[in-house]
Amino acid sequence: MTEKRFEEYIENYLTSTHQNGLKYHSTNTNLYIRELGLVGSEVLAFVKATQPKAYENWQAHFGEQADEKLLKRLSTEIQANGVIRVLREGIRDKGVYFDMVYFEPKSGLNPEHQQKYLLNRLSVVRQLKYSLKNENSIDMVLCINGIPIIGLELKNQFTGQDINNAIHQYKFDRDPKNEPLLQFKRMLVHFVVDNDSVGMTSKLSGSETKFLPYNRGIVNPIVENDYKVSYLWKEVLSPESVLDIIENFALETTELEKEWDDKSGRVIEKKKELLIFPRYHQLDVIRNLRNQIKVDGTGHYYLIQHTTGSGKSYSIGWLAHTLTSLYKNPTEKTRIFDTVIVVTDRKVLDKQLQKTLKDLEQTAGVVKAIDKNSQQLKDALAKGNDIIVTTIQKFGVIADEMSKLRGRTFGVIIDEVHSSQTGETSKKLKKSLSVNLPQMNLAAEPEPIYGEEKEEEDFEDLITKDLLTRGKQEHISFFGFTGTPKNKTLELFGRKNEQGQFVPFHSYTMKQSIAEGYTLDVLEHFMPYKRWFKLKKEDDNDDLELPEGKVKRELVNYVDSHPETIRQKVAIMLNQFVNHTQKQIRGRARAMVVVRSRKHCVLFQQEMIKQMKDLRLPYSCLVAFSGSVHHEGSEHTESSLNSDNGLQHSVSIPDGLKDPRFRILIVSSKFQTGFDEPLIHTMFVDKRLGGVQAVQTLSRLNRKASGKTDTFVLDFVNEPEEIVMAFQPFYTSTFLSGETDSYKLYELETEVRKFQLYTKFEVDEFCKLFYEDRKFDQLLQTPIGRVVERWQAIEDESKREEFRSIINSYCRLYSYISQIMDFQDKELEKQFIFLKYLKKKLPKRKGSTLDITDSVDLDSLRIQKIGEMKLSLEDKEGSLDPMSESGTKGTKPEEIDLLSEIIRKVNEVHGLNLKEEDKVHLNNVYKRMSQSEEVQKVMQGDNSEANKKQYWNDMLSRFFLEYVNDNFDFYKTVESPDKKPIIADLMLRQFLRGNNL
User: Fold this and answer.
1) What's this model's pTM, rounded to 2 decimal places?
2) What is the dihedral of CA 800, 806, 809, 815, to 10 degrees?
3) pLDDT-based confidence at 740, cuts 50/70/90?
4) Pair 560, 614 in one domain
5) How many structural domains comprise the chain?
6) Mean pLDDT for the chain?
7) Residues 214 and 292 occupy one common structural domain
8) Residue-wise burial string across 130-166, b where 16 or more C-beta atoms lie within 10 A, e elsewhere
9) Domain contains 588
10) Which domain does 295 fall in, by range?
11) Which has the minimum average pLDDT: 85-89, 104-108, 484-488?
12) Which pLDDT value is given to residue 417?
């Protein structure tokens, strides 16, 4: 039951298990040379066995000192350039070159390489005494050809010690200073291991050393008759695996971190050196993909559901390089993929992803980044670059040129697949890579197919080909990465299991990322606020009957856009930020405000700047939105608003937010996703969020930073239950409960035809014209125009809108189903083409003309805190339902309801839930305060708004305190944290206006 027996067990497994002709052998610790950090005898045995001619040349230069010089030269190279570079590139001196390792051949192109691969010497050294200063030792060190690469500190729980003791030992008993073996980049990784858990680090920094989890899941599952951590030596540390990691995964790189520099008064970039050792799930996904592709060949889809914190850029980089050198089996001489294309959804290429791909490049020119124009992309494809990095926007532009690439195979890796690869954009991508089929633009003469003689083709034939281009292509494999797959994504990219569910190929879950400390739980501190308002009317007879749905929308829009509402919300935000947020992350915390429109960005920023000045805060806010907004006779852009507020034109918004002068960012949709600023601690939400959008928006908070221990969400709009429902499907792995029913298309087609607005002949007529070679589109106008006139002749507006809704549903569903199913129904295709252009020609809906603004009493507005809560997610797989379209959804006539009842439904309750007795007491307090000469003197004197407000609040507390003995219930109610600010604010406004309560 001792640690020694644990060591022996692992050693016995490694030294007795053969894998592809390789196994470890045990080496005595006395053979380790501490000054050089090498097992000298192993190095020399490997070199002499594999490179005898090179060693003879070396001896000719150095004679009897040859061995000593070789070991010293090797040690110096490792110290200077790191173990990874030396293993991959070897060493050279005096014109003599030595390989220090031989990797497993991937193909049959070089048979003699296999023989050298089998001569690699893998060794286990137990209790390796590494120190030049003492007799400290590492429990177990694994070496490749005499070069130490992996250290393990082992603990056996049966002796009362666990992984935490191992971590403490590394941090406080192994000072890396002046110890050759403990220097950064000298070894690939150090593991800490007990019977149940594994941790790792690639950089020893004394007490600052950070160990990361290296478990198979959040906890390791029980293994029958073995240790829970047996995967470490059976999978990760096996000879084949270690050599694979050295060759294809281990990576020396630098990450650029931007931070504010007080001395220079600007944002500076700091380089951070990293040695990346693949995490368990990263190794697992790449190796599983590698094995599955060898079975599948090309033409398949793979969904990788890896959440934030998974190290996605590295996984994509490793996969891209893996695909470029993938063969069906070791005897093959032709690669599975000719070209690998990495597609990112961002218009500006992801710099981190692009850098990772370049860092992994071991041969210059393998990676080609398309960062200029479409011609650059065409040239890269024509040259057949191994890896091409581009954005989704460039594929549509070069669709015709890409069709000329025949007989080529492609692996396409898509970053954030849900936003790039559903809808019409994916068809452009598939069409651009299609080798056999003509493009949608059929002006060019069709090419013969499969060697047949060219025949005259009518529009029916062309439609059939167009259908085929939408299906899966045999020469293209797609690999989609996302943490939040939608139902469409799961059906298109997922794999069907035995239960008929569509599941990801591989998952790294939100739950695991949070548990392992790579991201923060954004639902842990969630505070909803509610706003209420009342109806302004003289008597009950003034109540109006109005369409409920429209009035609700008008009411909410009016109230939430009103300056008074925005004023109150901004006051609540700044109160939270000043009293709580600004103290977080060692005083560096930032906040994001998410509002419902670009106009609200302008309104909120104007009000926030005003209140920040009133409070004399030493910082202000920035705003981010696309395009321009017209408001009160002026045109506003993010650039004009931010520059007017002190941000230099040359400074970007992300850099500006790092400036201590700007600590809050107001957004509507821009920066709501894809913006990674670890200093954002708090989010104020004033926008309806649902599904994936809610997850992506709130996840702007989850990035880790030094000193950041939690996050905070204050939400004015969304119900806590709705947020939980949005997050739940993505907390663990997600599956689709079934596949989309294609018969729904036929049902929708039947509903469309019931309106009798067009005939089959008219559809055929339009499609025939559509597919003809033409310069102009004038002939397409007449058949569509006739249908539009018939639609306009329908007297019932609800019927017209019902027709519009059905054809929209049909087009959406057909566009989706045609990507995932290989069905060929020419009539459905013709109908799709016809309806696609018909819906564009239908006149747009008329806007609402309801005016209910005079009916709302804004003096009654209340925005009240409900209370902070922790939102919890269930530990279960997330289920999504397949896509479904209902043509009649939302087309029923709206119910008519009384205006006051509508407001009641919007509010749910009125006021602050105060009793009538409480209102009497409040009125008395207000009268006494407003009539007090002392209060009037201060409030009418030359004092700042902030000082007046503070004085008013203090005086109110003094008056409330008088009730503490006689009416404690009232005192407790009005002094509660959620009611006191609202009451004080309302009374103050009444006083300044000179009104009574």
Assistant:
1) 0.78
2) -100
3) confident
4) yes
5) 4
6) 82
7) no
8) bbeeeeebbbbbbbbbbbbbbbbbbbbeeeebbbeeb
9) yes
10) 279-448+458-515
11) 104-108
12) 58
